[in-house]
Amino acid sequence: MSKSFIPSRSLLSSFSRSLKYDKPTQQCLRLRSINASCLHARAPAPKSFSTSSARTYKTVEEQRSRYKSGPFSYRAASSSSPPARLIFYFRYEKARMERLRIAEATKGVGRPKVGGPFELVDQEGRRFTDEDMRGRYALVYFGFSHCPDICPEELDKMAVMIDLVNGEGEGEGKKGEKKGLLPLFITCDPARDTPAVLKEYLKEFHAGIVGLTGSWDQVKDVCKKYRVYFSTPQGVKKGEDYLVDHSIYFYLMDPEGDFVEAIGRQHSPEQAAKIIGGHVGDWRGK
Amino acid sequence: MGFFSSTATSSPPPPKISSDGAPIAPDRTQRAKCWEGRDAYFRCLDKNGIIDSIGQKDKAEKECAGEARGFEGNCASSWVTYFKKRRVMEHQKAQTLEKLRTEGAQEMPGQVARGGPGQKP
């Protein structure tokens, strides 16, 4: 071995590595849907690996292969470190595995959890929960029907995205079938956006969009879970004219209901469709 | 402007009520009409050098009364206020950028970040 470990230095390096690893781990998790899971699908490590010098990783494969051999090798640890170091190493390994296990369970480690259980009604008055989102990608947009200009623009964009994504994928999901991308419109204005109002409103954009509403508390709850800021006044009188200030993002959720990516106003429908299509394709390839 | 007769009200007709008793939002046609009214009104404000039609209410009313009726007659009052405020905000934003440019401010890398980090203008 060309690399020698001085005990104190090895401890130091394992510390710095553990710091260094935090980020690649997250990156790897973020890339999880692009590449298969970090835990199970490691690339085979190159044989000559242990002799290569430490450097930053250029690819995920490289990072993974380095990951496999750990911060330092058993041989180096046992030959040049006192038992205390070894105990530290095992503790470190245990913690790392625990971190990975948690990351695997929630997938969103290092990122705020977006999404979660909710219960609302769709534009036909049927109950709709997060369970109904499972099994396909969902594109979630928050808005309100009395929105002056931004929501209609964004919904027109959404309609193009839906056709681009679902049109490409074997022509499925065009008429709100249980396949392809599921577009959801969740109102931030439950007082005015009743199921019938949403039905009237959304049919002008795309037949496939599912419009969701509920009680003020239910909407507040789902907005909170999706980290959507909104300012709907509570307890407005009938016929009162007001606007709702809200965040403008499309949330892409994977078939397991986990947040994948936010698509903002800067993305054209074509760019957005490309992003979504990429994720959908990765999932199919799993 | 003969857009509306002198008896025209300056608010759109009340919205239709949905089957479950809530006012239906303006549809695509109504929105387009509202935006047209807004654009015509803003063109008039531009011609008369008015940015803030709320702050310069008297002048705006004098110069663009006809257009104002076309605007307010086709948009809900909350929309009218929103568009008027947004006009001011967008003007301020453009001015700030212009001011920075004339002061010789350098475009920050953030502006060109999409082209890649470390890019030089």
Automatic annotation (TrEMBL), chain A:
Subcellular location: Mitochondrion inner membrane
Binding sites annotated in the UniProt record for Cu cation: C147, C151, H246
Primary subcellular site in the record, as a coarse category: mitochondrion
One MF annotation (Gene Ontology) recorded for this entry: copper chaperone activity
UniProt cross-references to Pfam families, sorted A to Z: SCO1-SenC
Biological process per Gene Ontology, one example term: cell redox homeostasis
Listed GO CC annotations: mitochondrial inner membrane
Highest taxon of source: Eukaryota
InterPro entries xref list: SCO1/SenC, Synth_of_cyt-c-oxidase_Sco1/2, Thioredoxin-like_sf
Keywords: Copper, Disulfide bond, Membrane, Metal-binding, Mitochondrion, Mitochondrion inner membrane
Disulfide bond positions: C147-C151
Entry's family note: Belongs to the SCO1/2 family.
PANTHER family assigned to the protein according to its UniProt record, in alphabetical order: AT19154P, ELECTRON TRANSPORT PROTIN SCO1/SENC FAMILY MEMBER
Name of the protein in question: Mitochondrial protein SCO1
Gene name of the encoded protein: SCO1
From TrEMBL, chain B:
Keyword Magnesium attached: no
Cellular compartments per GO CC: mitochondrial intermembrane space; nucleus
Superkingdom per UniProt: Eukaryota
Chain positions covered by the region annotation Disordered: 1-30, 100-121
Subcellular location(s) of the protein: Cytoplasm; Mitochondrion intermembrane space; Nucleus
PROSITE patterns from the UniProt entry: CHCH
Keywords: Cytoplasm, Disulfide bond, Mitochondrion, Nucleus
InterPro entries: COA6_fun, COX6B-like, CX6/COA6-like_sf
Pfam families: COX6B
Gene3D superfamilies attached to this UniProt entry: Cytochrome c oxidase, subunit VIb
Swiss-Prot/TrEMBL GO biological process terms: mitochondrial respiratory chain complex IV assembly
UniProt biased composition (Low complexity): 1-10
Annotated family: Belongs to the cytochrome c oxidase subunit 6B family.
PANTHER family in alphabetical order: CYTOCHROME C OXIDASE ASSEMBLY FACTOR 6
Protein name: Cytochrome c oxidase subunit 6B-like protein new16
Lineage: Eukaryota, Fungi, Dikarya, Ascomycota, Pezizomycotina
Name of the gene: new16
